[in-house]
Design brief:
Layout (H helix, E strand, L loop, with lengths): L1 E3 L5 H13 L8 H6 L4 E6 L2 E12 L2 E9 L8 H15 L4 E6 L2 H6 L3 E3 L5 H6 L13 E6 L1
Parallel strand pairs: 4-5
Antiparallel strand pairs: 1-2, 2-3, 3-4, 5-7, 6-7
Length: 149
């Protein structure tokens, strides 16, 4: 079941993201940032356990980012990631957001979700709001992708 995240989910979301980060699959998110942006996040719950998460972060009037999408390794290849992406897309539609972007190492997965590779330079809002604080800036090795909805 997919639902919006609750305050009591934040530490579990943080652990899930950090596990994926420690495997080099994504960048970590500080706990405080997750609390600050809690309303952005969805969780996938199975048998009372959070096994996936992802967020839709609105950046500009017609641009939002899918961020921190991850699924517990034991629950991958079962459609959970795709359902989380679809939830983010649906929420973007509800807000009349026309473009979604993301930064990822999992290009093939997001191509299957309808995204295509683009240049990071087309997202100056992202660069100056988030990327500037990243330890990998300005040598980011993530791939930028976009989807019009």
């Amino acid at each position: 079941m997919i639902r919006k995240a609750y305050i009591e989910d934040v530490k579990k979301i943080h652990s899930l993201i950090n596990l994926s980060s420690s495997n080099g699959e994504m960048l970590p998110r500080p706990l405080g940032e997750l609390y600050d942006n809690l309303r952005d996040y969805f969780v996938y719950v199975e048998n009372g356990r959070i096994i996936g998460t992802g967020g839709l972060h609105i950046c500009w009037e017609d641009l939002a980012e899918i961020r921190s999408l991850c699924v517990a390794e034991s629950s991958r290849k079962k459609g959970v990631g795709r359902m989380l992406v679809d939830a983010c897309i649906e929420e973007a539609r509800q807000f009349s957001i026309g473009k979604l972007f993301l930064l990822t190492y999992k290009v093939d997965f997001f191509v299957k979700c309808g995204f295509h590779v683009t240049d990071k330079k087309v997202f100056p809002q992202k660069i100056w709001s988030d990327c500037i604080r990243c330890p990998k800036f300005p040598e980011c090795d993530e791939i930028a992708m976009i989807k019009e909805i």
